[in-house]
Specification:
The protein is α/β, with parallel strands linked by helices. It has a single domain, classed as TIM Barrel (Alpha-Beta Barrel). The radius of gyration is 17 Å and the shape is globular. The structure holds SN-glycerol-1-phosphate.
Length: about 260
């Protein structure tokens, strides 16, 4: 890493540049869409092409991660390729210590609050923290809650998923996240989930949580996204859809539906 880029990153961390950028975009558009790329499923060249097309459709950020992503060399390659093809912030969304790459703009420093395994609540974070500091990555503190089964994220993270029909339980965790000082909270139904986080749950969480609210998992239509946005979601994450060859029309509709 050159001295210049090290300096840039130090400034980035101090000013919380990516976090500020996300807040500014949310203030302007009310809700924004982020595209999620699974570094394990998508090779670097294809990933950069998908990210560029998603950005053209209206995505305002690119998240890179995956619950089972373990190849850090591959991850760094994907991040570098995507960085060269988009101007939006490129943010790591790690499922483990292997989700850290020096080339990203920031990392969602996540605590899987409803895991039964302390490894996913604080231990992986303690191990990963050293690399984050070494790379001067901007760390954005985020509470991560698995709703329902939560797909691979729920299984790997040993989550005790919050029952989808119990919004009050999600609100309870959200309030705890608020008191812990997490500036972001992600309600996760799981990648490719059949269902989604319910409108009732998003609303219940919104009532008690004052930080930036992210919702993802199983969102497939503009209506799904519009409902989540109306209930208070500020960032909608779309992953699986971007792996379809001709995702643009559907994805553009979703971005338009939530953005003001
Ligand atoms: C998964 O919430 C994200 O972590 C995105 O979910 O792949 O279902 O869009 P999808």
């Amino acid at each position: 890493m050159s001295t210049d880029s090290t300096q840039d990153r130090l400034v980035c961390q101090a000013l919380r540049q990516v976090e500020s950028k996300l807040r500014e975009l949310i203030q302007r558009h009310k809700t924004i869409c982020a595209g999620l790329i699974d570094s394990e499923n998508i090779p670097p060249t294809e990933a950069s092409d998908i990210a560029a097309r998603a950005e053209k459709c209206g995505a305002k950020a690119v998240l890179i991660g995956g619950s089972t992503a373990v190849d850090q060399i591959e991850l760094d390659n994907v991040v570098k390729h995507i960085k060269s093809s988009v101007t939006s912030p490129v943010i790591l969304f790690p499922g483990n210590v292997t989700g850290v790459s020096p080339s990203a703009d920031a990392i969602f420093f996540s605590c899987l609050m409803n895991s039964d395994n302390p490894y996913f609540i604080t231990q992986a974070q303690a191990l990963g923290a050293l690399a984050i500091r070494k790379y001067n990555l901007e760390a954005i503190p985020m509470a991560y809650l698995i709703i329902g089964e939560g797909g691979a994220a729920g299984f790997i993270g040993r989550a005790r998923g919050i029952p989808s029909n119990k919004p009050s339980l999600a609100a309870m965790y959200a309030l705890a996240a608020q008191y812990f000082g997490f500036r972001f909270l992600y309600l996760e139904a799981g990648s490719g989930a059949d269902g989604r986080v319910s409108v009732e749950m998003v609303s219940a969480v919104r009532k008690v949580y004052e930080g930036t609210l992210i919702v993802g998992g199983g969102i497939k239509t503009a209506d799904d996204a519009r409902r989540a946005s109306s209930a208070g979601a500020e960032i909608i994450v779309i992953g699986t859809m971007l792996e379809e060859n001709d995702f643009e029309t559907k994805f553009r509709d979703i971005c338009k539906a939530v953005s003001q």
